[in-house]
Amino acid sequence: MSNPAEKPEVVELPAEPVSAPSASSRRAAAQRVREARDKLTSTSGTRPAFDAEMLRQYAQTRLSASYVVMLLVVATGVLFGLWMQPIPAAAWTAGMLCIHSAMTRSCRRFLTEPASPAATRAWRTRFVVLDLLYGLCWMAILIHPVLDMVTETLMMFLMLLVIAVSSMLAANLPIAALAATAPVAVAMALSFVMTGSLDNYILAALALAAEGYFVLLAHRLHSSTFATLEARAEKDALIGELEQAKAISDEARHRAESANVAKSRFLAQMSHELRTPLNAILGFSEVMKSEIFGAHAVPVYKEYSADIHNSGVHLLNLINEILDLSRIEAGRYELNEEAVSLVGIVADCHHLMKLRASSRGITIHEVFEQAMPRLWADERAIRQVVLNLLSNSIKFTPQGGEIWLKAGWTASGGQYLSVRDSGSGIPEDEIPVVLASFGQGSNSIKSAEQGAGLGLPIAKNLIDLHGGTFTLKSKLRIGTEVIVTFPPERVMSALAPLSDDSPPLQPESSVLPEEKRRPRHKPIMSAGTGS
């Protein structure tokens, strides 16, 4: 028997990451879908809102030029009354005025009624029919047999005038412009062709060319108006999107503020609930570690008590840092300002951290300028800044490394503090990360002594509250330097002695000049009546 065919191994390919479309691509896709939907529901191939706006502009143009059209009709009727019988000319004039009156009344009604897609289509058809009647009336008067005596030049001029006026008035509705001008141009061209002369053939060609030119001009005007409306619609849509985005941003900001307030309230309420049992743990663990009430039966219990105490101290410090950071971010951290010595605070912090640095074989150098005046600042905040910077330097400096503490004057008259180490350094792209809350660099993650990532952010925020600057410079495998500066406004310089003489204790009395020059040996106030 043959062995069954082995089942082919199916290897599942990793799915390609699907990138989220950007806001601009989503906006463009939505606009294309909206335009396609509008074209399907429109009778003219444009948006329904644009159809209504085009008809509105057409009606407004007709109403604004109504008196000009009436004047043209009356002048043409009077002029043709000179070559033909007055009654037909008067009848033609009356008919044209009736059509013009109907068109004007329709435009006014359209402007007063609310716009809707069905009403827009009905009004569009009505305007096209009225313009067609308007063009047929002009055609009737221009090809009247009685006007054969009129020269072709005058007829051509009148035709061009009628076509130009009708094209400009109906430019926002190209099909209406074509309905108003095509009968006139075609009728005049046929009239010229029927005469059979070469000159009239040329005039017929010119009539058709003029019709094409004015139709093209009306189409260009319609395209320009449509582009203007489209730009305005896009601007309105953009303004709407901006307003919507602003509303969303305001709502998100309100939610963030509410969340921040809730966080601050939670931390303020929980600070007591966390510290009370923690203080008890620290106290009892210290009692057990110190063996105050007697030695432990098992020596390992003493080590366990020390571990509990150290862990509690670490947890307490972490809680204090989180609470300090929350107060700073909420703007509720108040500075207890007083006259402090920057050099003295740095020296005290060096003394506190000296034992820890010596256990790692790290040497700390001090470079302080002497006779520096005091700063007007919060001593606890500055001490916390120095301790955070110094502890970070000790943590990330290898055994046998060096740390330099510097304090002195800045070029602008302020004071500065610098902490520089010979540690592993921080990559340049990770500097914003370590300055953010709970941010840790790659070296911190790899290090055995990981922290919460709050030391540098708290130090930077405390310096910002003092109006100073916090600068972090670092290079890989060379070291890190943090420079903190205080503005000159916080330096309490010693006041210079007064150079002017002090005023007299009491005003001098008016005495004679010779008495003024004579030295006085008597006291200011003498007892008795002796002279």
TrEMBL record:
Q: Which InterPro entries match?
A: HATPase_C_sf, HATPase_dom, His_kinase_dom, HisK_dim/P_dom, HisK_dim/P_sf, Sensor_HK_Regulatory, Sig_transdc_His_kin-like_C
Bias (Low complexity) occurs at 15-31
What top-tier enzyme class does this entry carry?
Answer: transferase
EC id: 2.7.13.3
Where do Basic and acidic residues bias regions lie?
1-10
Renumbered residue ranges of the record's region Disordered: 1-45, 495-531
Molecular function per GO: phosphorelay sensor kinase activity
Protein name as it appears in the record: histidine kinase
Species source reads Bradyrhizobium shewense
